[in-house]
Write a structure and sequence with these properties.
The protein is mainly alpha-helical and 64 residues long. It has two helices and no strands.
Length: 64
Amino acid sequence: MTAPIVELSESSSSARRGALAVSVESRGYKGEEGRTPIREYRVRPSDAAVLAVSAALLIAALLV
């Protein structure tokens, strides 16, 4: 016996969208307010040195 094929229609996706909206609102989601900020990373001189050494080793390995 095979499993029935479930087809998603416009109405089922609309119902899920509505349910999601209700759940988000009921939990008090406020968007950007109170979220963890994104950290911005910067390349330090030590990072650049490691990159240069790695590139040099890769080139040396390819030439051998």
